[in-house]
Specification:
transmembrane helix, 0% strand, flat, 310 residues, mainly alpha
Length: 310
């Protein structure tokens, strides 16, 4: 855990440091998937309610990022990928990061409840708690299943967006959750394959550290195979359609092919080309998720014209 006394000595932070504290890249995924969940729901939402709801969901995502950076500052300082983050770099005091995370958490939950409904607000509160406490405090440093279980935190936003519109949960929102949940392990394990030393040095029990790269490659392939039917199954629901199914078929074929290529590689080949296949798979995984949700959005946009949906 963060050493507050060691990290509270920091120079005056700039605006960009506080933006970085909220993990804007992660927030962008939260915003996009939550927006899709809201827009594909069968209940229309007033544009002002939709905008304010997404704003507060984004704020909640940023609050989670701030709390994560506060608690993980000690290991972030060790890892090359994270040592330049505001808290370990000494740009923002640990106490300030904690305070900001708590304040933004409270604001986001209360305002989402007032703007939309209290079910969605409670869902957001649970998501913040799950990411900050269940994943960051408990799972991340205790088990190689950290990403598998902890991935639920990143999978909740489309369900929250759906809840903003409908006030509840449905098979469609659960499958959107399942798509992200099943996608998360191969996505992060691909990163862990070429960042193993970072996690090892920080003492984070990522699968590559506890079981080695060979086992991790097999797990990536297994989860990718399990992900495909979830992705295709979503296309058979009321929010799917031929556009989504075509996009999903192409993406999942490519994802499985990439996972098989990673599984079949030995370490000598991976080292020789600088883990090019693994890095390519990681980049493709980002496009994979974006395009699936983009296809859902296209189905919803075209449905009023009789061109989307079943």
């Amino acid at each position: 855990m963060t050493d507050l006394t060691a990290l509270d000595q920091s120079p005056e932070a700039e605006f960009g440091d506080y933006v970085a504290l909220l993990k804007p890249r992660v927030m962008s995924l939260v915003v996009f998937t939550a927006l899709v969940g809201l827009l594909v729901a069968p209940v229309q939402v007033h544009p002002l309610v939709a905008f304010t709801s997404i704003l507060f969901i984004a704020l909640g995502g940023g609050a989670s990022g701030a709390l994560n950076m506060w608690y993980d500052a000690d290991i972030d300082r060790v890892m090359k990928r994270t040592r330049s983050r505001p808290v370990p770099a000494g740009k923002i005091a640990a106490g300030d990061a904690l305070g900001l995370g708590l304040v933004l958490s409270g604001i986001s939950v209360v305002m989402l409840g007032l703007a939309a409904n209290w079910f969605a607000a409670a869902f957001l509160a649970f998501t913040i708690f799950f990411y900050a406490v269940v994943y960051t405090v408990w799972l991340k440093r205790s088990t190689p299943q950290n990403i598998v279980i902890g991935g639920a935190a990143g999978a909740f936003p489309p369900m929250i967006g759906w809840a903003v519109a409908t006030g509840g949960i449905s098979a469609e929102s659960v499958l959107m959750f399942a798509l992200i949940f099943m996608w998360t392990p191969p996505h992060f394990w691909a990163l862990a394959l070429f960042m193993k030393e970072d996690y090892s040095n920080a003492g984070v029990p990522m699968l590559t550290v506890t079981h080695g790269r060979k086992v991790t490659r097999k797990h990536i392939f297994g989860y990718t195979l399990a992900l495909a039917p979830v992705a295709m199954g979503l296309g058979l629901t009321s929010i799917g359609g031929p556009i989504y199914m075509a996009v999903a078929a192409v993406l999942n074929a490519g994802f499985i092919r990439g996972a098989w290529r990673i599984r079949a590689r030995g370490e000598e080949a991976a080292i020789a080309d600088g883990y090019a296949a693994e890095k390519g798979f990681f980049r493709f995984s980002l496009a994979y998720l974006f395009l699936h949700f983009g296809a859902l959005l296209a189905e919803a946009a075209l449905r009023p014209y009789g061109l989307g949906g079943w």
